[in-house]
Amino acid sequence: MTGVFRGWVEVAGERLTPEEVLSRVRSNPLAAAGFGGEFSLSWDGCTARDHLGIAPGPGPSGKIVCAGDVIGEVNPQYPKMDLETAIREAVRLRADEGVVALSGGVDSSLIALLSGLPCIAVGIEGSHDLKKADSAARLLGLDCTLVAIHPGEVEEALAAVMSVIPQKNAVDAAIATTLFFITRAARDTGALRVLTGQGADELFGGYARYLAVKDVEAQLAADFGTLAAQAERDQAVSALHGVLLSLPYLDLRVVGAAKALPAERKVAGGRRKVALREVAERYMPRELAWGEKKAMQYGSGVAKEIRRLAARKGYARVGDYVAHMAGEGARSSP
């Protein structure tokens, strides 16, 4: 009997070894129904993946499939927790290895501080994110490696990611190219796991548009629904360097605690991610907990460099240049 296991599994807050995972599902495939973590499993004609499909692999997200039939769902149940407890537990379960992708914003800074893991930050020399990450690391006493992206590397990285990401548009391309450099830097440190702050904006109301919408909860629900596609994109890029992304804010404990909060605990008084920032303020100076930062593709300077490349190549629209690079990426992929 053979089995393939990628990622990690926990049951009721206790990590399982790969041997324990495969032993349990071979004895009873429905044992995977209670598996938390970020994982994909394949064994004896069956597959299972974590509830949100964060880990890439065969089979549909959150389903247990045997002989082509869905026989159960991966849906571990946890006791209700307050937000701080949920975040601490989510980070604890992921803090045994890897690095944290630090941008200097509240999301990644809280993960870095709670995990105690080394950090990496990437960006074009002089970029917003390199400055913010350096400032946050110094303020919090974090071990952080700053990695400067040479502008000449961006086009080659863009071609590489266009060969693997499913949605080949300008926004996804810029995000994926930034992640290319983050995961490459992680690999160069010997890390196989990168903890990131992704998902926090969709759970806690981090985007500027939330300040203008009438129904914040409806917008949050719609945006949360895009996270599976984001994970597919991001893990495809990470796989180029043999790295797996890990997302503490999408731990089901945190998701449950966040969804239990009313909208005014997320967006209120012209401020976003209120509940998360209140938790963060217990661990870091107020100016960092409540500070604003740019999205990573802008903060890193990568989106700006892609725009420069498009103009230099004679494209009036970045989207047209990205479409061209999608073709180049497809031709150069294995």
What does this structure look like?
With 334 residues, the protein is α/β, with parallel strands linked by helices. The protein folds into 2 domains: 3-73, no CATH class; 83-299, Rossmann fold, CATH 3.40.50. Helices cover 45% and strands 16% of the residues. It has helices at 18-27, 83-94, 106-115, 128-140, 154-162, 170-188, 200-204, 216-224, 227-239, 252-259, 274-280, 286-289, 296-299, 302-312, 318-332; strands at residues 3-11, 14-16, 36-43, 46-49, 63-66, 69-73, 99-101, 119-124, 144-149, 193-195, 244-246. It has a 6-stranded antiparallel beta sheet with strand order 2-1-3-4-5-6. A hairpin with a 2-residue loop joins strand 5 (63-66) and strand 6 (69-73). Helix 2 packs antiparallel against helix 10 and helix 14 crosses helix 15 (318-332). The longest helix has 19 residues, at 170-188. The protein is globular. Residues 329-334 have low confidence and may be disordered.
